[in-house]
Every structure is written in structure tokens, then in C-alpha cells.
């Protein structure tokens, strides 16, 4: 095949065959197609689009660019969850032990923080010693032992995705639903799962600002998963305010511990119980989402979910002392409280700015080389619709970087709007699509 002819074909709005897409991905991964040609293909596909079949073909080519795990030796159903990313979104730390405690295997390959959103791997690494870089042999051993394992993408898992994503990042082709679908599904399908629950976020702190875009992405992900005979269910959830009250790596582990002890903190409890309930339903542990939520709550009330979290942390070399005694975790050198300047109701929160504030504190990376401060973060007290008074606390920020504290405080002050009348409060779970 001729690479230039394939670029021209897509540029002119024609559809590519499965074999043509496979040729492009395989040869780019093997470095037989240079970056400048694959960039041209990406832009042509970004502008002209890929249909459902082409999206599945792209997913398939990226999936089989590396190893696809066979977990058939491990008894029981395997179900995972994927979130499109938000601020304060720590549900993976809660639902993995909940679902595993109920008897469903959770093989979870997670990501790092991206832009204003946090990453599960960074949160887990705030637990001293926690190893997210297990090889595939150890990955299987841990899954067999504890029924849940949380690691990062290895060299063997969808290597084409890593190469293509880094190129999309610098060629302004990130915001493409077919590309996002192929990127997510190639990694998730490689895990060897039977089912997948999707949390597709929309709002000021999400990548998909409009609900219509979130629904379109969810439908694309569901269609592709079904093409690979996987059970799938999607939740469209609100990200017009941070999820829970804690933002930052250890801060989010801390809040997860609170939930695993039964504390119903903000919308975090509602969303976590629904996601874990859906995973239990896909894993055939229960017959309905309602039953799944009830079983999830029982796993927490009985203490089994927290015990499972300790088991997972220990199996991945993490120090459980701070999980058992979270108040003894080291604290930041500096902190500052940000206050409301008027009376009224919380009308609007720019969640994107809150995420950037966490980044300024050291809880995320501005460049690949930046080191994360696991102690840095925000306790965010404002919630949409809450009645507030002048000098009430919006948030408290923590960091070892004094200049970062000032920048974060300014961002948070400008991110929260107050009105005289109570605004409508958005539903956390907007849609469930299966």
C-alpha cells in the first residue's frame, strides 16, 4: 500500500478499509512511516471523521500492536471502570476494593494526571512504597491473590496508543471522538476484561464541556466495546463542581479512606456506589443496578471494602500505616484559607480553574519533567446551591511552594460566583446508557 495515497483518500473524505488502517498503524508503530506522514493522516481523519467501522478498525489495530492479556486462568468475571477525567475524581480508589470485596475481579490499568485532571497512578503513588509498575506476570499474580490490581500502561500494552497519543498532543488532533475511543478502548480491551463501566463527564471541569459531546463519546465507546463482544454501561456525570471535597493526590486517598469507612461525602458516595453497583451487575453478581448499589453499601458497612483496600495496598508494596492512620501523613509547610466576600448562594464554579489551582500547588505537572508533591492539595468546601455568608471558607490550600499558594488562592477566588437567589442544582448522574 502507498501511505500518500491513503492520506489523500482520507483527505478527500473517503472511507478506509480495515486493512488500510491496519497498514498505517502497524507501519507507524514499526517506524516505517515517519511522524510527518502519520500527522497528515491524523489531521485528515480529524477533519473528515472516521465512521463506526473505521473506529473499530483503528481500535483493533492499536489493541493488537501489543499483548492482549488472557486472564482465563483466573476464575470469575473481570470488570473494569474508565473515567474520562475530572477534578477530585477518586472513584477508582473506592470502587476497586468494593467490587473486589464482593467477589468480582477488577484488573485496572490506569493513567497519570492529564492537564487540569488528576491521575489514579499519581494518587496511588502518594501512598509510600505503592508500586504501579508491576510486570504482567505480577499483575496476574496480584489479581489472583487480591481480586484487584491497579497498574500503569506497560510497554507491552497497546504501544501504538502511546506513540499516536503523543503525536495527537502536538498536532491539535486530541479532541476527536474516534481517536479518544480507540485510545481508551485499545488499553481497556488489552486488560482481558469481560465488562466495562464508563464514567463520561461533562461540564466546566470535563474535556467534554457539553452534554451532547459526552453522550456522543459514550455511544462511540459503547458501540466499539460491543463490536468486541464486551458488556458495557455508561454514566454521563456532572463535572460543574469538584467531586467530593478533597483535591490533590494524598488528599484524594484520604477522602477515599473516609468513604470506605462509610462517610457519605458529597456526590462522591452517590457516584461511587452507582459505578460499583454497575460493575457488580455486569459481573453477574446481581441482577439490577439497584441491587448492585445495595451490595456495594453492604461491602462498606461490613468493613470488607476497607479490608480489601489494605490488602491491595500491601500486595503492591504500599505502606498501610498511613491508610490505617491517615491523620499522621506528613503535612505541607504552607496553607491558606480563601473566604467568600459576600452573602448569597453559590451559583457557579469554574471547575477547570480549581484543577489548575491544584496544579499550581504542585499536585499536578505542567511539564513531563515536573515532580508531583503528594501532600499538596485543596479542601474545597463550596458546593453549588449552598447558602454562604461573607468570610465563610470557600477552600483551604496546602503546598510547600509559597508562591503556588498565592496563585492557587487567586484562581479559586475567581472560580466561584455567588448570586442573591438560589440557582438550580445540576444532577450528578445525568444519564445511564447501556
Can you describe this structure in just a few lines?
The chain is α/β, with parallel strands linked by helices and about 425 residues long. Helices cover about 45% and strands about 15% of the residues.
Tell me what you see in this structure:
The protein is of the alpha/beta class and 434 residues long. The protein has three domains: 47 residues, Transferase, Pyrimidine Nucleoside Phosphorylase, Chain A, domain 3 (Up-down Bundle), CATH 1.20.970.10; 237 residues, Pyrimidine Nucleoside Phosphorylase, Chain A, domain 2, CATH 3.40.1030; 90 residues, Alpha-Beta Complex (Aldehyde Oxidoreductase, domain 3), CATH 3.90.1170. The chain contains 17 helices and 13 strands. The strands form four sheets. Strands 1-4-5-13 form a four-stranded mixed sheet, sandwiched between helices. Strands 6-9-11-7 form a four-stranded antiparallel sheet, with helices on both faces. Strands 10-8-12 form a three-stranded antiparallel sheet. Helix 1 packs parallel to helix 3, helix 2 packs parallel to helix 4 and helix 5 crosses helix 12. The longest helix has 17 residues. The radius of gyration is 22 Å and the shape is globular. The chain starts with a helix and ends with a strand. 52% of the residues are buried. The mean pLDDT is 94.
Question: What distinguishing features does this structure have?
Answer:
434 residues, alpha/beta, Transferase, Pyrimidine Nucleoside Phosphorylase, Chain A, domain 3, Pyrimidine Nucleoside Phosphorylase, Chain A, domain 2, 4-stranded antiparallel beta sheet, 17 helices, 13 strands
Amino acid at each position: 500500500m502507498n501511505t500518500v495515497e491513503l492520506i489523500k483518500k482520507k483527505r478527500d473524505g473517503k472511507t478506509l478499509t480495515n486493512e488500510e488502517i491496519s497498514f498505517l498503524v502497524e507501519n507507524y508503530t514499526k517506524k516505517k512511516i515517519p511522524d510527518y506522514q502519520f500527522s497528515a493522516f491524523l489531521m485528515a481523519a480529524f477533519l473528515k471523521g472516521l465512521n463506526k467501522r473505521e473506529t473499530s478498525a483503528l481500535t483493533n489495530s492499536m489493541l493488537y500492536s501489543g499483548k492482549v492479556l488472557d486472564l482465563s486462568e483466573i476464575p470469575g468475571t473481570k470488570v473494569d471502570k474508565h473515567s474520562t477525567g475530572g477534578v477530585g475524581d477518586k472513584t477508582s480508589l473506592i470502587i476497586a476494593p468494593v467490587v473486589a470485596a464482593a467477589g468480582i475481579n477488577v484488573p485496572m490499568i490506569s493513567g497519570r494526571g492529564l492537564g487540569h485532571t488528576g491521575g489514579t497512578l499519581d494518587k496511588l503513588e502518594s501512598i509510600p512504597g505503592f508500586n504501579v509498575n508491576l510486570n504482567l506476570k505480577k499483575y496476574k499474580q496480584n489479581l489472583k491473590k487480591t481480586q484487584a490490581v491497579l497498574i500503569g500502561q506497560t510497554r507491552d500494552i497497546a504501544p501504538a496508543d502511546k506513540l499516536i497519543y503523543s503525536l495527537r498532543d502536538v498536532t491539535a488532533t486530541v479532541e476527536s471522538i474516534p481517536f479518544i475511543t480507540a485510545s481508551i478502548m485499545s488499553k481497556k480491551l488489552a486488560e482481558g476484561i469481560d465488562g466495562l463501566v464508563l464514567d463520561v463527564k461533562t461540564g466546566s471541569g470535563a474535556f467534554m464541556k457539553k452534554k451532547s459531546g459526552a453522550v456522543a463519546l459514550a455511544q462511540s465507546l459503547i458501540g466499539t466495546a460491543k463490536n468486541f463482544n464486551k458488556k458495557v454501561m455508561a454514566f454521563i456525570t456532572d463535572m460543574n463542581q469538584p467531586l467530593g471535597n478533597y483535591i490533590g493526590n494524598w488528599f484524594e486517598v484520604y477522602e477515599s479512606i473516609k468513604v470506605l469507612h462509610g462517610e457519605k461525602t458529597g456526590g462522591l458516595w452517590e457516584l461511587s456506589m452507582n459505578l460499583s453497583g454497575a460493575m457488580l451487575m455486569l459481573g453477574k453478581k446481581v441482577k439490577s443496578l439497584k441491587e448492585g448499589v445495595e451490595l456495594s453499601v453492604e461491602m462498606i458497612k461490613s468493613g470488607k471494602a476497607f479490608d480489601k483496600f489494605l490488602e491491595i495496598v500491601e500486595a503492591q508494596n504500599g505502606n498501610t500505616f498511613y491508610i490505617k492512620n491517615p491523620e499522621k501523613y506528613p503535612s505541607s509547610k504552607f496553607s491558606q484559607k480563601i473566604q467568600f466576600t459576600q452573602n448569597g448562594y453559590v451559583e457557579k464554579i469554574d471547575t477547570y480553574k480549581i484543577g489548575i489551582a491544584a496544579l499550581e500547588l504542585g499536585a499536578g505537572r505542567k511539564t513531563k519533567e515536573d515532580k508531583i508533591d503528594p501532600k499538596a492539595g485543596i479542601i474545597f468546601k463550596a458546593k453549588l446551591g449552598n447558602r454562604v455568608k461573607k468570610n465563610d471558607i470557600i477552600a483551604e490550600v496546602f503546598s510547600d511552594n509559597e508562591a503556588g499558594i498565592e496563585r492557587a488562592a487567586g484562581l479559586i477566588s475567581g472560580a466561584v460566583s455567588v448570586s442573591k437567589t438560589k440557582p438550580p442544582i445540576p444532577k450528578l448522574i445525568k444519564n445511564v446508557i447501556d
